[in-house]
Structures are given as C-alpha cells and as structure tokens.
Amino acid sequence: MAQNKGTDLVEIAPMNNPPVCKLADFSKFRYEREKKLKEARKKHKGGQVKELRIRPKIGIHDLDIKINHMREFIAERDKVRLTIVFRGREMEHTEQAKPLVDRVKERVADVAVLEQDIPMEGNRKSLLFAPKK
Question: To the nearest 10°, the Cα dihedral for 113, 61, 91, 84?
C-alpha cells in the first residue's frame, strides 16, 4: 500500500503486538520527532544552583532584598547557595555570621530547607538551601 501511494511505511510502536505502523513520509516523521525532542530539552531545567554573596555587616534592608531574591530562585525550583564572605579583620569575628544565618533560615523556612551547612572554607561560610517538596 505504501509503494502504491508513494509514501513510506513508518513503524510507530514496535513493542506492541502487533506492531503499529502508519503510512507517512519518513523524513517528515523524523523531522517532527526531532523537533519534539528539542522542545522537550529546551523546557527541561537541570536543577541549577544560584549563588548569593553577602557580607557579615550587611544592612537589614539589603539583607531583605537578598532574601527576596532567594525566595524567587526557590520559587523557580532552583537551589540557592548563600555565601557569607569575610574580609580583613572580619575573619577574627566569624561568630557574627550566626545571627545572620539564623535570620535567613527563619525568613525562608516556609519555602526552603537548609540542605547543607558547609563549614568555613578560607574566608567564606556557605549554606545550601533547597526548595521544600
């Protein structure tokens, strides 16, 4: 039948019993299948990690803005790494990060969970937040 109509016999579902085939132009079928796969890859988002950097002496308003950015990233189902950067003499007072970390945890507790509390690495303290399921 395919030869009479000048088309190709395309196997759609080879695993079915009996296999499912249709009469179509094979190159057009292959093009449409590739187009669907490309569209699916475009929409697939592979769990990105966004990073926000703050200093220990950040102002309240500035911290609120960073937390709002964090909430936006989490709403998009991304993980967020919050890095507190210490410079100079701030390295002597790394305990200043504790109240800052507590405030951030408290503010995002409804949408995110602390996944990892990474210890000090050089002059940086990092926290990894993941969206709640």
Answer: 30
